[in-house]
Design a protein that fits this description.
Elements: H1 2-21, H2 32-51, H3 55-72, H4 75-80, H5 83-90, H6 92-110, H7 119-150, H8 154-161
Helix pairs in contact: 1-3, 2-3, 6-7
Length: 164
């Protein structure tokens, strides 16, 4: 399993290393060609994945290119800086930890709500109800359990709990 994802890890590490050690001259000007490269890689990625043409080699490289575009691109980087997307990204761990619990609880309550409807409509309505429940619960949990700890720096915590 590790070797299946090792190239993703390696590409991410190399991109991070180049990003933190790169010369910052001309950083303010985004490179639009990166956005076009990411768009051009989408059909190639789909084709490679569907045909089984060594996706374990191609897809990590495309992911690395998308990561570079997110850091240095134009439109991709701009879209990833939207406040709502950044907020949801900050909440991802809370969502990861609690989504199954919320879906399980809400599913027990709402299973009979939309009986008699065609499956597609039933599924869509359940998806909407579950999504609203997950987001609502996770916003509250994030605000009162995770966010307060993000506001405190490690240095302050160490000073607070250091023996006198």
């Amino acid at each position: 399993m590790f070797f299946h994802y090792a190239l993703y890890f390696t590409v991410g590490t190399v991109v991070a290393d180049f990003y933190v050690s790169a010369d910052r001259v001309g950083e303010s000007k985004p490179t639009r060609w990166l956005d076009w490269c990411v768009v051009a890689c989408i059909p190639v990625s789909v084709l490679v994945s569907n045909r089984g043409w060594a996706p374990e080699l191609v897809l990590p490289l495309h992911a690395g290119l998308a990561l570079v575009a997110a850091l240095r691109g134009g439109a991709v980087a701009r879209q990833l800086r939207r406040p709502l997307l950044v907020t949801v990204g900050g909440m991802c761990y809370t969502i990861y930890m609690y989504h199954y619990l919320v879906i399980s609880g809400v599913g027990r309550v709402t299973a009979g709500w939309f009986g008699g409807l065609p499956y597609e409509l039933f599924f869509l309505l359940q998806l909407v109800v579950h999504s609203l429940a997950v987001v609502s619960v996770c916003v509250v949990l994030f605000r009162f359990t995770e966010q307060p700890f993000k506001a405190v720096s490690a240095k302050k915590l160490i000073q607070r709990f250091r023996p006198a």
